[in-house]
């Protein structure tokens, strides 16, 4: 079956065509997620998210030749979201709804609690705009455009401030003696 025909059938809701698209593209997307995401991103989880978006929005592809670029764009945005979440988890596990470790004893619970307090101290020490950008972008996962609108600043300011805020946070955390959560596991 040709790519245009497969795409048209998938857009019409044909389950076989959708399954064929998944079989064809999942290995490619998984490779993209693994390469773009790096070691802190769960490539399988990110690829799953990409495939779900593909299935929900397949009707937006009007030219089968554009499918690879369209799918890569979805992958880039999805991996970026996963990388932001990974950055937050790097410092404090559990803040994004991770399932608690049922085997964690009181010592581990205390350690995570102390790290959380230390992270809050570091956030409090940042300039207000830096703190707001870190919280809105990394913790709440809001897109640059929404953060810019909420703060009344240009998107470019959000991007440059986010980079600067991360650097300031890391310096502050290291000065406090914090070790990223993933290094303690």
What is the element layout, followed by pairings?
Blueprint: H1 3-11, H2 15-37, H3 43-57, H4 67-91, H5 106-125, H6 128-139, H7 144-151, H8 155-175, H9 181-184
Helix pairs in contact: 1-2, 2-3, 2-4, 3-4, 6-8, 7-8
Descriptive key words:
single chain; 185 residues; mainly alpha; Rna Polymerase Sigma Factor, Chain: A; Arc Repressor Mutant, subunit A; 2 domains; 0% strand; elongated
Our count of domains comes out at 2
Unreliably modeled segments: 94-100
Distance linking N and C termini: 49 Å
Count of extended strands = 0
- Describe the global form: elongated
CATH class type of the largest domain: Mainly Alpha
Number of continuous helical runs: 9
Overall average residue pLDDT: 81
Q: Roughly how much helix do the residues carry, as a percent range?
A: over 70%
Largest sheet entry:
none
Compute the gyration radius: what is it? 20 Å
Strand content: under 5%
CATH topology of the largest domain: Rna Polymerase Sigma Factor, Chain: A
Alpha-beta classification: mainly alpha
């Amino acid at each position: 079956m040709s790519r245009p025909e497969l795409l048209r059938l998938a857009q019409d809701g044909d389950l076989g065509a959708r399954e064929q698209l998944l079989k064809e593209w999942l290995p490619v997307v998984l490779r993209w997620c693994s390469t773009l995401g790096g070691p802190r991103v769960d490539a399988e989880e990110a690829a799953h998210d990409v495939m779900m978006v593909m299935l929900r929005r397949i009707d937006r592809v009007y030219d089968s030749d554009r499918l690879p670029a369209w799918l890569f764009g979805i992958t880039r945005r999805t991996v970026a979201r996963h990388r932001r979440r990974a950055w937050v988890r790097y410092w404090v596990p559990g803040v994004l709804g991770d399932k608690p470790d049922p085997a964690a004893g009181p010592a581990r619970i205390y350690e995570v609690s102390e790290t959380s307090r230390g992270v809050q101290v570091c956030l409090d020490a940042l300039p207000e705009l830096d703190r707001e950008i870190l919280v809105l972008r990394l913790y709440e996962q809001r897109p640059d455009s929404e953060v810019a609108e909420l703060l009344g600043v240009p998107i470019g300011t959000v991007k440059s401030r986010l980079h600067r805020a991360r650097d300031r946070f890391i310096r502050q955390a290291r000065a406090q003696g914090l070790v990223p959560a993933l290094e303690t596991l």
